[in-house]
Methyltransferase domain-containing protein (Actinorhabdospora filicis), 267 residues
Amino acid sequence: MSESIDGNVLDYYERGGESDRLTRSAHGRLEFERTRAILSSLLGRRPQRILDVGGGMGVHARWLAEDGHDVTVIDPVPSHVAAAARLPGVTAVLGDARRLEAPLGSADAVLLFGPLYHLMSHQDRVTAIREAARVTRPGGLIAAATISRYAAWLDAARRASFGDDTEDAVLRLVAQTGVIDPHRFGSPNFTTAYTHLPGEADAEFTHAGLAAPATVAVEGGAWLVGDLGAILDDPVARERMMAGLRAMEREPTLLGVSSHLLTYARR
């Protein structure tokens, strides 16, 4: 099903764009650890049948399987599927988030931790969420990750990178339109993507027929800390930071500061 994915996006991921993103930097480690903590809390302890749609090389499928869940990765990138299929206890197949081949109500939980990044139209994103809801049992969990609209600008602020007129114009355009265009950035560091305003994914969940969606901040403002790696390596400082992030994760006035957001609902 690789023909269903934008060519620029496919090329980025086939070149290994996601292979170690969540382990090679402190920011990636924070995103991974917070996503794992939030999702573990939502899933509870009972083993569940989970579809990890757009699950890449299985970075979350690995620990979910280790925790006793029955995990299937569904991804449009052939190299991702091949890598995920090698993980113990994980099944992986090619597929498109907008056209899942799973039966009605067959999953306890469906994760969309990637598709909403690269589905550029509102209708395609709603279709993916609706498909996730279709294959989830009544009462089951649908959870989706999104990139914050202001993440690119805040990252530039973190790096004190405001000296380039072209970059400044691109950052303003992303903030206005939500669209990250790698050709405008002139950098291979990421690919074509859509970034969400706080509350936008909630509206898409509602449009897809899901009631009472909620959004939490993944990294909050902690990803802007200069010596984040040292904090993560210090058990006491790490737990204090994580406790603060848990306490503030639902504060609506702070959602836009987080690099990533996680929106969820029950079918």
Notes: The domain at 2-266 is CATH 3.40.50.150 (Rossmann fold). The chain has one domain: 2-266.
